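Each record in this resource describes a single protein on a pair of labelled lines. The shape at a given residue is found from the number at the same position. The record below illustrates this layout:

***
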Amino acid sequence: MDRTRVVIAEDETVTRELLARLIGMESDIEVVGQAANGRQAVGMCRKLMPDVLLTDIRMPEMDGIEAVKLVKREMPSVQVVILTIHHDDANVFEGIKAGARGYILKESPPEDTVAAIRAVARGEALLHPGIASRVIAEFNRLSEQHEADL
């Protein structure tokens, strides 16, 4: 079985290296690149064509949302997991709109991040439970608004 190839984009060096070590310990996942900002992440994805981009939102030069938009436009086969401390609705919805299929909070256990990588690599989606409930609430709100407009 082929290993899932991952690029990690995180501006905090210690966090990025720790993620790379933890994820790299999985027998079915290979960390093929590490980027310190969104611009580097896009460049690495162009060069390495990973299966998954694991990215933070807030980074210098180009934030994670802009990087996701570019990656998904140019390389739609690259799946994206956002790993962040930001779980406000604006960031969540922008990340999903940009094309992310996974959204995990940094406070989550490492196995949740690994599970999200595996899920999106299989074409599935995985959202942190607290985020999933807000997405469903927003979907319901939009649906009710649409019905009221009819």
